[in-house]
Amino acid sequence: MNRLKRQLSLWTCCTLLVLPFIMTSPSYAQCTMTSEQLDKVVASCGSGDLDCFVSLAKDNMPCAANIAWYFMIMNAPDDPNAVLKRFLSAVPYSYTLEKNLKDAVHWADIANRNEQKAGSETSANEYPYGQ
After folding, report:
1. What is the extent of the structural domain holding 36?
2. 97 and 37 belong to one structural domain
3. Is 42 exposed, middle or buried (0-12, 13-18, 19+ CB in 10 A)?
4. Do 23 and 62 fall within a single domain?
5. Rounded to a whole number, what is the largest CA-CA distance in the chain?
6. Residues with Cβ < 8 Å from 59, sequence gap 6 or more?
7. Reduced to 3 states, what is the DSSP secondary structure of residue 19?
8. Interatomic CA distance for residues 112 and 23, integer angstroms
9. Is this model's pTM higher than 0.70 or not?
10. What is the tens place of the pLDDT at every residue in 77-121?
11. pLDDT per residue as tens digits for the range 34-85
């Protein structure tokens, strides 16, 4: 239990130190699209059309993690890691942004799986952050 508290404290401390740098960088701006707007944007792509989703991500960098998340839930709802790797390998992100995308999608996936276990029926369609 103490180990968990230390990890949470460390996580909170690191988050508070790093968050201002992420939020002030223009390439990491928060996604301002609503879920409905994102649904409409990604609806223009076929479910497995990686090139289309990559193009959307490049054109909407603040929402790139959300677009990656949408691509993943459409193509690999059970194991998103392989699909995320495929998506990120097609987008020329910097290492830092790639890591941020992976982290955001990873934690959103865990949260959504926990919500599904608790009986939520809509969690698989939620985005990792933004709105």
Report:
1. 31-125
2. yes
3. buried
4. no
5. 49
6. none
7. helix
8. 24
9. no
10. 666 667 777 777 777 665 666 777 777 767 777 777 777 777 766
11. 888 888 888 888 877 888 988 888 888 888 878 887 887 777 666 666 777 7
